[in-house]
Structures are given as C-alpha cells and as structure tokens.
Amino acid sequence: MLVPVDPFIRERIHLTGSVQGVGFRPFVYRLATSLALAGFVGNNNDGVFIEVQGHAAVVDRFKARLLAEAPPAAFISGVYSHGMKPHLETGFSIVSSNRDGGDMPALVLPDLPVCDDCLRDLRDSSNRRYRYPFINCTNCGPRFTIVEHMPYDRPHTTMSPFTMCPDCRAEYGNPLDRRFHAQPIACPDCGPQVTFVHGDAAPQHADGAVRAAIAALADGKIVAVKGVGGFHLTCDATHAGAVTRLRERKHRPHKPLAVMVRDVAQAKTLAYVSEEEVALLTGRERPIVLLYKRDNAALANTVSPDIGTVGLMLPSTPLHHLLAEQMPLVMTSANHSGEPIITDNEDALTSLSLIADAFLLHDRIIYTPCDDSVVTVAFPVRRSRGVVPQPLPLPVTLPPLLAVGGELKNTFCLAKGNQAFMSQHIGDMQNLETLSTFEHSLENLQHLCHVKPQFIIHDMHPGYLSTRWAQRHAARHNLPCVAVQHHHAHIAAVMAEHCIASDETVIGFAFDGTGYGTDGTVWGGEVLLANYRSFERVAHVAYMPLPGGDTAIRRTYRLALAYLWACDLPWDEDLLPVMVTMPNERRILLRQLAASLNTVQTSSMGRLFDAVAGLLGVCCTATFEAQAAMQLEAMCTDDVSAHYPVSDSTFDPAPVLASILEELRAGVPVSIIAAKFHNTVATWVLQVAMRLRQLHNLDTVALSGGVFQNRYLLERVQANLEQYQFTMLTHRQVPPNDGGLSLGQAIVGYDAAKRSN
Ligand code: ZN
Ligand code: ZN
Ligand code: FE
C-alpha cells in the first residue's frame, strides 16, 4: 500500500481588485507566518502577488483562508495561481512594490470612513493620537482623494511631504500593528495639522483650532471646513440665523442643505429612518441619505424648506466626528453654484471670504476633489465620495473608451473589458472651472484605472461644453467620436446596471427635464423601444412651447401660461399664474407664443411637472433645478388613487390641465390635485407599457431620467407595473439623473463606433 505523500510545492498567486491599501499584505504575512509557509508578498500595478512554499495541504489551507478571511475593505475581483519550482527559502517577508504588472489595474479604494478602533484611539485621552483629526489605519482613512500614482504607496500620495516620526515608523514597519503599511499613517508629531483662521485673530493650531472652530459654530458662525474631498461650508443646523445667513451669502434661497449628525440616534430624532436606511447611513460610503423629515425635527426650518425630506449623513473623518459631536451641522459643498468643490486653502480663503466667517484648514493636499455621495433607499442620487473609483461590471466587453457625460451633474465614464469606471460628481459643465476639474479628474482616473481611450463618446447636443470638448479631443488624438442620444443613454444606463444582454430590447421610459432630440427639439417625456444598439421613439409627451428657452424654465408661472395657451385654455383672471403676471408681460408672452419667437418645442416631462406646479401656485419661481417638482411631490396626499384622463399613445396635457382647472375652481384641495396628477403619469406609463407588450411581446420596462427621483411617482409606477407582472429595471448603482448618463453613453457609443469604422 502506498503511503500518500504530501508534496512540497511553491505557488505564485496573483490577486486583482481593491487589494491595496486595505492591510492585505500584513494579512497575508500573518496568515503565511502562522502556517509556517515560506515566501513573500508584494503590491504591483495590478494587485497583490504572493509566492508561498510549503506542503501542498498547507498551501491549500492558505489559499482557502486567503479568500475567506481577507480584510473587510478588500474586494477581490480575480485570483490567478500557478505552480513554480520550490527553492531554498525560509521565512516569509513583505517585499517592496513592483511597478511592472499585468493589464488589469489594481484598483485604488474609495476614501474609507474612520474605523471603530481609530475612533476609540481618538477618544482615549491616554492615546498619543487623542483628538488627532488625521488618525487612520489600514482599515480606514483617505485613499482616492490622496493618490497621485499607482501602486498605492505613501510616496505616491499627498502624504509624501510628511516624514514619519520614529513612533509612526515603528508602527508602519510592524506587521503585527494595525497601522502596518497604512500609507496615510500620521500622528500629532509628524502628520498633517489643522489651522483655524478667524478674521485678524492669530491663527490657532492643533486641538486649539478644532475647539475654536466648535466654539465659532456654537456661536452661529459659518465655518469653511476642509475635509477629505474638499471644503464644506458648515454651520449649526439648529441655529436659524446661521442657516439663513449661509443661504443669503451663498445665494441659495431654497435648495435643501445636508446635515451631518453625530450618530444614528440623533438621525432618528430628525427623520424617519428604516433599518435599510440605517445600513446606508452607517455603510462604508457614508453618503448623504435623503430621509423623510419628522415634523418636530430640531432643525432650523430653512434647512430643507417646503419639501418633505432632509439629507442626513454621519461623520466619516475623525475631524468631522470631533465637530459633529457637539451639534448637528449643515454641511454644504463649498463652491460657486454648479462649479466643482473647492479643495485648496488659498482658493478657499479668497473665494469664500464673503461667505465664511472663519476657516478650519489643514495642510494635506487634496489631489482629487470629491463631493459627498447622495442616496435614497430606492436609488443613488450622486455617486461620488466613498464609491468612486469602484468599477461597475458590464454585460458586454468594451475596448478602452471614454464617455464624457452630459451637462448638468456631469460624470464621465472610462470603460475597458467588462468594467466601467465612473468618475466622481464633477459639477455642471457650464464653465471653465468645471472643465478643468473634468480634465484633471480624467487624467487621474485614466492613470489609476489604466484606461487609454480609443473611442470618445458624447451627447448629441451640439452646444454642450462636454460635446465640444469631446470633438476637439477626438480630433486632436485622431480618435473616432460618436454622439449618443440623451434618453437612449439614460435607458442604456439602467439596462447596463442590470446586466441586460446585448440582444435584448426593453420598453424604456426616460423622463427628465431636457435632452437633445434627434429632431432638434427638446425631449424629456420619452418612451423608447431600446437595446444598446438602437432605439425607436414609440410615444412621448405632446410638444409644448418653451418661450425663452432654457433661461425661462425657472419661472414656472410663465411656463404654466405657455402650456395653457398651447392647450387652448384661456388665461382667466382667477388663475394664480395669471394673477402674478403683469398685463404687460402677458401681452409680450402672448405675442411671443403666437409668433413662436425665441420659443422651442419640448416633450419634457420635467417641464410638465413645473407647469402644473406653476398652475397650482405650489411654486411660482424655482431657484434650483427640480424645485417645483419636489414641492409638487411634497404636496401629494397618499390616499388618492384617482387620475385624470390619459390615452395609451401620446401624452396630451390638454385634458389633464382642463380637468385640473375644473377641480381648482370646484375647490378641490391642491394636495389631491397634485396626487391625481402624479397618478395620471403613472397610469399613462402602465397603459403605454401594456400596449407595447401586446404589440412587441416585450415584458421588461426600464425607468430612467431625473423625474424618477420623484419617489411618489416611482412608487406608483412600480406598483402599477408589478400588478401586471412586468419586469422592472430601476437605478440601483448610478443615478437616474444625468449623473448616470455616461454609463449609458459608453455602452451605446461603442456599438455605434464599431459600425462606423
Ligand atoms: Zn482605523
Ligand atoms: Zn508620527
Ligand atoms: Fe437627462
């Protein structure tokens, strides 16, 4: 009988994914050492490489535990191993990084929230990092925003100017320490410092600065605070005067402000928080979560006026923990409307001098700006800090390409193979500041993800800054350049997210404010039969006039008048939009409409919501995008199932507006009319879907576009479609708004580029 021999072997193992900067090498070191295996571990461009040597059974055990016990922040996307010839080697070591590597990039992690262990150190007065705002370890701390190069090592981050003190160096070099090879390791002796600047007073440093900032906040001051991805403008969220001053100085009268709370318990005193929402609040991404506000919430009324929700987030950095411990804080990105978040001390001191009373600065450079992410329990609203640059899996294989996104809430998307790398929120691509952040972020992400685009994809709108940039860039680099229709990209984005196969066609409802149509009009209430390759526009909202174009859309009372006119409904004196419009303005508007002067045609669903809000007097002048629709949604009562007349083809606003006028005059409450209007749109979706199912034998319905951030509408559409057993695709990974557009562009555009070649 043969005695089984356990052979002595050596294996090289290669792991790809987010395996750098999460304590992976120390974990491997500890595991291999505990199993008495020889070999080494190191980082290279595309991940972690390991060589282990020992008896086969032990090596197998090592490999099993390698995956099962990997550090919590790690995300392994691939494991490759092959046998090698054993050689004389004793002990296990961590070797320095090797910049050569394979083709698949090692993924740099998003910035991680401070971990519980570090929080304990932060609050332990005997710890040498007591109240030190930059405390971190391999399980937490900044990543994406400080990385300049791969592989992720300290000299390649904005921590490189800080020389480690002997104590930090000892921790950094000790494989048994939680901070072993924690690249941003720092302490009060050697790391970044905060500085508090308040008028002409002498600047304060270290913990004195933090305490001074807290005192200023408690005193109702507005403080610009430098965080991990950029500056926030911060004030006491319970202080009505401070919030009002912030709004006045930022010229932001209504747009809701996010609030940072100490913990979940405090969040629950301000809003209704479900278990699922607790998970979002406490998740690794630490996003702003949009929650239904409590009536008795102890917040200044002006934090999120006239809408039913409030955005709350938990602190993610040690500095934010120290500040938010004292009071709930308004936290709004420090920027000029639509421009990128400010990251630089000098820039903040000058450009925020008229807004902020004081500044809490620090001296670690933010290499890549990154705004807070925003989510609801149903869908993401902004995919940014804590998420980017995690890739999204694609249902098809793409060559290296770049999709530049749209205009508002711009993101871009780099894709390669079956992975898509979406950028962080860049801003509204309407000015040079945003364009330069776009270029910087693009260069950075290309480098981090090893994508060198061979195709450039943009929106069909010839006037978008992103379109013109794409065309220039493509011409300069002699790359094929393809335009993708806006709403096709929306539908493709939600399809891609659900990994719909490339030969499948869906019924797509793309409802948003504006997007360039193939006929040159402004689309936005579109029903498309779509696959990745092409689409057919099978129904839409009837064209309505948009007098004054984009500049006039915030004046919802004028929009209401234009819609009434187009629907042959008279401008009677008892109607609110008529009352608030001077006779002279009405005469001019009438002439403009009749002659179609400076007036574009639109099938926009977003504008229809605005017009109804204007007609009901819910919102006469909007100061931010979607304000009217948000206020209209907040008006709705839940217990109404009735709706106004609709057909199963073109959505005709005329009978809807006529019915609304009738009910207004009959004294029906606005809350019921608002609900019935929402129900009307949801009913139209169902009727159109039913007809298309019958005609084309399709069962899958995709919902996209900013209008579907309306949760009242989304819930009713979902309920309707579920009742009739449709398969529904809604956004779970990328926003329904234009922040998700670039993903759809990437997948549609490649197909078009391939054919045009
Ligand atoms: Zn930590
Ligand atoms: Zn130190
Ligand atoms: Fe859109």
Quaternary state reads: single chain
Radius of gyration, in angstroms, nearest whole number:
28 Å
Question: End-to-end span in angstroms?
Answer: 67 Å
Mass-distribution shape: globular
Q: Could you write a compact summary of the structure shown?
A:
This protein is of the alpha/beta class. It is built from 22 helices and 28 strands.
How does this model look, in words?
This protein is globular. The protein is 34% helix and 21% strand. With 757 residues, it is of the alpha/beta class. The chain starts with 7 loop residues before the first strand and ends with a helix. Helix 19 (653-665) packs antiparallel against helix 20 and helix 20 packs across helix 21. It binds zinc ion (2 copies) and fe (iii) ion. Fe (iii) ion binds next to helix 13 and strand 22.
